[in-house]
Amino acid sequence: MVQKSTSTAGLRGQVAGETALCTVGVSGSGLTYCGYDVADLAANATFEEVAFLLQHGELPSQSELDTFKQNLKQQRELPVALREILERIPKTAHPMDVMRTGCSALGVLQPEQSFAEQDEHIVNMLAKFPGIMNYWYHFHFSNKKIDTDSNADSIAEHFLTLLSQTKPSELHINAMQVSLILYAEHEFNASTFASRVAASTLTDIYSAVTGAIGTLRGPLHGGANEAAMALISSFTDPDDAEKGLMAMLAAKDKIMGFGHAVYRTSDPRSVVIQEWAKKISEEVGDTRLYDISERCEKVMWREKELFPNADFYHASAYHHMGIPTDLFTPIFVMSRVAGWTAHIKEQRANNRIIRPNADYIGEEPRKYQPISER
Ligand SMILES: CC(=O)SCCNC(=O)CCNC(=O)[C@H](O)C(C)(C)COP(=O)(O)OP(=O)(O)OC[C@H]1O[C@@H](n2cnc3c(N)ncnc32)[C@H](O)[C@@H]1OP(=O)(O)O
Ligand SMILES: O=C([O-])CC(=O)C(=O)O
């Protein structure tokens, strides 16, 4: 069994600030957004309701939700200069680099001039991120300059419509709603903390979100959903997965999509997305990757007491929704921007620059030596 670290390396277990947005693992495994259980939200809410909740601390009334959705719809079209920038980013770029550059470019073209404008810029990012990803993707991979202004009712439907260039099925729209809700917020995870550190310098909102996107990109964080896809698709069937995993564990490899810095026994998001992964696999009539995933879960618990995190079952779910693997982590961005920006607002509302100390472990004080004497 893996010994879960009790050291404070990586600031593990340290309190680094206050938030009213989210609790993670308080009862060992739970997750709440502004007091609501994430499983309750995933079963009943839309992503827009959850984004509003994170931004305003309360669920919207019908008229508040209608106005919020209307504002989001009105901001979907990308400025010409941004489309030109996206066209110049090479086909070989990683889509997360496209998202990072797209967000940064938005901050150049439509800068946040004062914090009083922050809500407008949050709507701007929520509305435009699906278009940024899909405009670049279609320009390079289907030789099309797509219209990013769809009539879709939700961000979930809008993203899937732009990607497939057809009307997505209700099953896929509902699965994407759930996925966006599960990914929306997670307390002081690495990318959110990065956004709060940036915000604490009183920088603009696009700079703080650009830093967060770069932080989410890594395989130990959001990039794990893509790495989990690479893992499960490297196995031919569940028995092959068991054999392969045992070899990887013997070689002390990290198994992507397993383990967590805070949860100790389970990630409450995993069981929710697992159900959707099963439904979607059965709908396409191909449960091979899902069956492989289930076996991985069994082996990892038996061998290491490690459990699937939010990313693991997203891999087979997204794959069978026809989403290219490289776009998995950018979808995480389209959702987590709701959480990042809620934290940026919270940091700004009660700010002190985040500037911890370090324990010095270097050389004792010494005199400069001229280069001729070294
Ligand atoms: C949405 C998200 O960002 S969820 C996280 C996504 N990331 C991944 O799935 C990547 C794989 N997982 C990991 O690398 C880790 O579990 C992390 C980064 C998520 C958490 O890291 P930590 O807080 O350091 O984990 P923890 O303290 O529980 O780890 C203790 C031991 O378990 C091992 N361990 C943890 N996760 C794994 C894993 N997935 N595979 C193999 N061993 C693991 C660690 O290597 C460590 O062993 P060591 O002390 O010999 O180095
Ligand atoms: O909280 C973390 O460390 C990582 C995580 O699960 C998330 O950001 O969703």
TrEMBL record:
Domain of life per record: Bacteria
Pfam families: Citrate_synt
Pathway recorded for this protein: Carbohydrate metabolism; tricarboxylic acid cycle; isocitrate from oxaloacetate: step 1/2
InterPro entries (UniProt xref): 2-MeCitrate/Citrate_synth_II, Citrate_synth-like_lrg_a-sub, Citrate_synth-like_sm_a-sub, Citrate_synthase, Citrate_synthase_AS, Citrate_synthase_bac-typ, Citrate_synthase_sf
GO MF, one annotated term: 2-methylcitrate synthase activity
Family listed: Belongs to the citrate synthase family.
PANTHER family on file: CITRATE SYNTHASE, CITRATE SYNTHASE-RELATED PROTEIN DDB_G0287281
The name this protein goes by in its record: Citrate synthase
Native organism: Reinekea marina
